[in-house]
Here is the input.
Amino acid sequence: MTTLIPKYYEGATGSVNRPINQKLAEIVSVKDFGAVGNGIADDTAAIQAACNASACVYFPEGNYAVRTITINNSATLYGDGVSATTISRVAAYVTEDSDLIQFNGTDASVGTTMLDYVNISGIKFTNAHTYNGADTHSLVRIYLSNNIDIENCYFEHGPFHGIKINGSLNIKINGCTFYQCGFDGIGIGGGAGLTGAPTNTEKVIIDSNIFEDTFNGSNIQVYVNYIVVSDNICKKSTITFGQPCNSIVVSGNIIDQQNTYGYTATDQNDGIFIEGDTNVVLTGNLITSVGGNGIYVLGSEVYIPPTTTQLPIRRVLIEGNNIYAATERGINVKGSSFDNSQIGTSVSILNNIIDGSGNDGILLSTTDGFEITGNWITNSYLAGITIGAAVNGTISNNRINNCSTSTPNSYAAIFFNNNTHGLDIFDNSIYDTTGIPTTNFAIIDDVVNTGGIRSNTRTWGNRANSIASTYVAPTSAVPTLGSWTLGDQVQNFTPSASSYMGWVCTTSGTFGTLAGVTGSITISTKVLTVNSVTGLEVGQYITIAGVSGTKKITSIVGLVVGIDSVANATVTSAAVAYATPVFKGFGLVQA
Here is the structure.
């Protein structure tokens, strides 16, 4: 006997008859496979069967209790909204350390290494228990998909992550809520170690989500490129990027970290943390009450077998953020790797509002080429702006108010030291209404106290109110350390009758003794090849035996030293020495 299969006819012009079973298989309901949806019955088998049968699975209103669902094909899962449709862990398995739902593009049994798509919408996912400190799995985990779209979902009590994604492309997560997920609301990483995976996860948009009581709101780690994190609300949560990521935009987020879930009283957690990344834009974020830095951008290093690779930061813009009550610094940028063997480049910190930092308002270090302009910094416990081991930068048009309130007061509104040189500091407005002692100064270069290298630093047009002075390098005697350029001035910290108000450099030079360094140079060139670079730094002044004049070091690459003017003779293995600077007193105080 022949079984007749009913036909389905759309009825529109051009439509054709199709077997109705094929039509119905395009979208299946988990109810078709026996799912109960009462939150008690174990619906694992029914939902697994539905996902095996169709690439589009509908979850009608209900609470579907499961153990673990594994989907090895492209799929769309959708429900009737987060208040109506829930997928939860079966009560007997709530402490099981496994993913609730896993999409797996690496299963050889289905002959694929990359899923075409994963779409999820209108579903609440919950594990019904809080993070226990040992869990490592997720509510939803996705391995290897070319397109991921997750919207209008709710993720609660993720064992470790709400969503975890690796080795995927074109990711959009929009309009979701993440509540008390163990470590990351969203964790995204590269594809290292996954068969057939791209090394880099790329093109990620995380937009208009809510993260609450989650350790990291979004945690993006290792080989992720082209990322936008925008307009999210992170309540008692943070935004973190590991290394190495490339091309990051973080904008318009609200981050309030008060009493963050899972934190202890000793934790120091940054509002936005960026490590070892390049091409970074952080703009228009509101960051309040964080336990660490408001924004922390840090050079790093990563072990990529067989070597450790240095990851200094490159091309960072931090603009238009509002940072309030950071326990550490408002903005902290450390450009180099941990051992400072490389240095970060091209950092701009512009037009931010920073109020109430427990340390410096802005700290920038180990960076070559920077601009700190137009910021409004108030009520910092230490300096408004501190620069350390950074070169070739501009500090201008900042308003610094009521900073350096520490006791004893040893900092200034702008403070720089430790191998810092090549700075232009101008048109800053510095105000004090907190009773800072008049022995404190608006701008301090600590080269005399630290033995750092400073040259080509200029200050002009700075305005100070209720502060003793705006000047560079306080001292009570002619300097004897560091590098100095013609025209540099130091002010006498303790003037007395018949003494000078300060000293001006009349001959550029570097103090100290350079031992055992020899070099060779060809006439009419600026390239000196030396036997050792020990004791040499960019910005120092040297002499070369047999070559006329003082030369300034402009670059050092290996044993090759660049200088600022050409040699007038060819010499070989000639002695290289520091050129001694000369200072003359000015402003004789009457007896």
